[in-house]
């Protein structure tokens, strides 16, 4: 069964190579695939009856309930970015993904955004509904070809996990060195829902601002990890807010950051709004040269009796002791530093695809050497 109509065009070999770097695999090994290039949904189709994937504009006409999900988690007047995206509300650029109730999807769902036009502009809107009791793994990525250095990308992602739904996700960004990117992610977990996510941002980019807002219902559980690398001349902002809104909600969030001369700011706020909630924030930073900056600002706000919230934060240089130990074993200094950085940014979790984990290791080495 195939859902969606935007599959009239195929990907070129160059486009496939670009997408492989951010997690793409052959469509026969995926439950559903979407690829958006510039302002065209190049591919949007499903090979699994339990997964609907189609352009958002088409979904609004096909399913009445999609209009209630659109801007259901954030106001279209929330800020300038939302106003720019909502200006295209009658003909949105993006996709709609729906995993049907009770589905246990065996293959991952993959979705990608590519900007091929130099100095191009994209304003995208993605809506994901993982229905009651459904389980799915999702892989997403964003990339540009090597010849594209500058442009602007603004996106909004709204994700709904209904009661008892389970989601594992990996997202990899590989934008151009002089690009401006602002991403906004909103999610709502209903009773007993479970989310495990990994976000990876390693490439050089002039200005990248990533905002995340999560609302967690009764007995829901969220585990999130992020790895961020900032080469020289790069500015990255991570701004996360997790609200434990229902009794028994639990959250663990870990961010690992490395600067090779760029600036990283991590603002993380954990709010305990209900009794018997548990939350943890972890922020670890590693500086390679003397210049560059990492600012880690974890914050806790317990509003209900019985909310147990905690955080840990650290920022430092490469350990001279670890460096000396590795060099004593016969490694040169650069190789020893590479191993320390790769270990610091190591991915955790069985849900990380092996091909993605291997590519991240390569990306770390390329980013540190200035090859990205």
How does this model look, in words?
The chain is α/β, with parallel strands linked by helices and 372 residues long. The chain has one domain (13-369). Helix content is 17%, strand content 45%. It has 7 helices and 19 strands. It has helices at residues 13-20, 56-62, 66-69, 80-86, 320-328, 333-344, 354-369, and strands at residues 32-37, 40-46, 51-55, 95-99, 109-114, 120-130, 135-143, 151-161, 166-174, 180-189, 194-201, 207-216, 221-231, 235-244, 250-260, 263-272, 278-287, 293-302, 308-317. A hairpin with a 2-residue loop joins β1 and β2 (40-46). It is globular and about 65 Å long. The two termini are 39 Å apart. The model is unreliable at 1-8 (pLDDT under 50).
Key features of this structure:
17% helix, 7 helices, alpha/beta, globular, 372 residues, 9-stranded mixed beta sheet, 10-stranded mixed beta sheet, 19 strands, disordered N terminus, single chain
Q: How widely separated are the two ends? A: 39 Å
SS content category: alpha/beta
Helical fraction equals 10-25%
Q: Roughly what fraction of the amino acids lie in strands? A: over 45%
Query: Can you give the mean pLDDT?
Result: 88
How many DSSP E strands? 19
Number of helical regions = 7
- Tell me the quaternary state: single chain
Number of structurally distinct domains: 1
Q: pLDDT below 50 for ≥5 consecutive residues: which ranges?
A: 1-8
Summarize the biggest pleated sheet: 10 strands, mixed
Could you provide a short overview of the structure?
By secondary structure, the protein is an alpha/beta fold. The protein has 7 helices and 19 strands.
């Amino acid at each position: 069964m195939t859902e969606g109509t935007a599959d009239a065009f195929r990907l070129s070999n160059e486009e496939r190579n670009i997408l492989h770097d951010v997690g793409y695999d052959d469509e026969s090994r995926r439950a559903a695939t979407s690829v958006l290039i510039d302002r065209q949904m190049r591919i949007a189709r499903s090979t699994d009856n339990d997964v609907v994937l189609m352009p958002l504009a088409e979904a609004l006409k096909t399913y009445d309930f999609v209009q209630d999900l659109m801007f259901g988690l954030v106001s279209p007047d929330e800020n300038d970015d939302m106003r720019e995206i909502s200006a295209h509300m009658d003909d949105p650029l993006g996709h709609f993904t729906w995993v049907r109730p009770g589905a246990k999807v065996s293959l991952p769902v993959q979705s990608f955004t590519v900007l091929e036009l130099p100095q191009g502009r994209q304003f995208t809107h993605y809506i994901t509904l993982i229905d009651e009791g459904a389980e799915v793994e999702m892989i997403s990525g964003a990339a540009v070809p090597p010849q594209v250095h500058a442009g602007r990308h603004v996106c909004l992602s709204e994700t709904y996990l209904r009661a008892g739904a389970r989601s594992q996700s990996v997202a990899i960004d590989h934008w151009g060195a002089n690009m401006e990117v602002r991403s906004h992610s909103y999610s709502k977990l209903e009773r007993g829902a479970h989310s495990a996510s990994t976000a990876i941002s390693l490439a050089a980019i002039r200005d990248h601002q990533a905002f995340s807002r999560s609302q967690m219902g009764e007995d829901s559980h969220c585990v999130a990890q992020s790895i961020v690398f900032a080469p020289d001349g790069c500015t990255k902002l991570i701004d996360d807010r997790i609200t434990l809104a229902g009794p028994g909600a639990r959250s663990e969030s870990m961010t690992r950051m490395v600067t090779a001369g760029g600036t990283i700011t991590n603002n993380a706020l954990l709010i305990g709004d209900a009794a018997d909630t548990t939350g943890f924030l972890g922020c670890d930073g590693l500086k390679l040269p003397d210049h560059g900056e990492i600012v880690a600002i974890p914050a806790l706000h317990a509003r209900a009796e019985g909310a147990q919230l905690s955080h840990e934060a650290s920022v430092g240089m490469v350990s001279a002791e670890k460096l000396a130990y590795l060099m004593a074993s016969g490694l040169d200094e650069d190789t020893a530093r590479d191993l320390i950085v790769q270990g610091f940014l190591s991915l955790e979790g069985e849900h990380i695809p092996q091909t993605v984990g291997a590519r991240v290791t390569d990306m770390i080495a390329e980013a540190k050497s200035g090859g990205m």
